[in-house]
Design a protein that fits this description.
266 residues, alpha/beta, TIM Barrel, 8-stranded mixed β-barrel, 8 helices, 10 strands
Length: 266
């Protein structure tokens, strides 16, 4: 399904108001983010990094979905997980069954977490934004919401590859709706082929979370700005059963704390 009209401002406001009274009722308020702990992680398929390796960055975290099962967030926190991104929604009708439990448990363990939405290329942006807003609470200490945009060649229902202009236009509708509702500028997650083909940097001044599992992002993304780097999908993290996606934040511990303040709700 193609969605080609530009979303009027009034519709963005209406989307933001959808579920506008919803606050975080998913569990107790966590303590402020504690000190950064050096990561105690392994990797089932390690890389011989050329140049700057992920281990040179002090702030590490994970992203999870139903496929990681129940995460022991306290154990993960004690072993260096300083943040988490949790899959919440997909398209306009899928809610990750592990989201609510992960949201509650991570926050109770003092791990800063945010939610991400997996984009479905066969559904209008407005519908997808409404679905995410319906299920993800507004919490003053949550990380910004994330839009995960990738190609989906193995999807059983949608392998559509819209034109770059359509991709960016739809993304902007979604991003504007979330920013209006949550009072935070969203993060954009992408992989090299999608990022390049659709010139995602043209969306503007967003924090990017980029996947690069064999080389530093500056080499893979031609020096483009990034805030989070997903450097492996085969990580071994205490508290996570099986293999985990591991990420780093782009700066120092002090920069991390500054970013947490700057990206908080307005």
């Amino acid at each position: 399904m193609r969605w080609t009209s530009v979303l009027p401002l009034c519709l963005v406001i209406a989307l933001a108001a959808c579920g506008g009274g919803q606050r975080d009722r998913a569990g107790p308020e966590p303590a402020a983010a504690g000190p950064v702990v050096a990561p105690n992680f392994g990797d089932a398929d390690p890389v011989d990094w050329k140049g700057r390796a992920p281990s040179s960055y002090p702030v590490h975290g994970i992203d999870t979905s139903r496929w990681q099962g129940a995460v022991d967030w306290r154990l993960a926190r004690a072993n260096g997980v300083s943040f988490g991104f949790l899959k919440a929604t997909e398209g306009g009708d899928i809610l990750d069954p592990a989201f609510k439990a992960n949201w509650r448990a991570a926050r109770a363990a003092g791990v800063p977490v945010g939610a991400y939405h997996f984009w479905y290329h066969c559904r209008p942006a407005a519908e997808q934004a409404r679905w995410f807003i319906r299920h993800v609470p507004r919490s003053p200490d949550a990380l910004p919401p994330v839009l995960d945009m990738e190609w989906t060649p193995f999807s059983p229902t949608c392998t559509l590859r819209p034109a770059p202009e359509t991709i960016r236009r739809e993304a902007k509708i979604f991003l504007d709706a979330l920013e209006a509702h949550y009072g935070q500028r969203p993060i954009i997650y992408s992989a090299p082929d999608f990022f390049d083909a659709n010139q995602m940097w043209r969306l503007g001044n967003y924090d990017f979370w980029l996947r690069s599992v064999a080389a530093h992002p500056r080499d893979v993304y031609a020096g483009r700005h990034w805030t989070f780097w997903q450097y492996t999908g085969t990580g071994l993290v205490p508290g996570v059963a099986g293999k985990a996606d591991i990420n780093v934040f782009a700066g120092s511990e002090a920069a991390w704390r500054d970013w947490l303040v700057q990206s908080s709700h307005r």
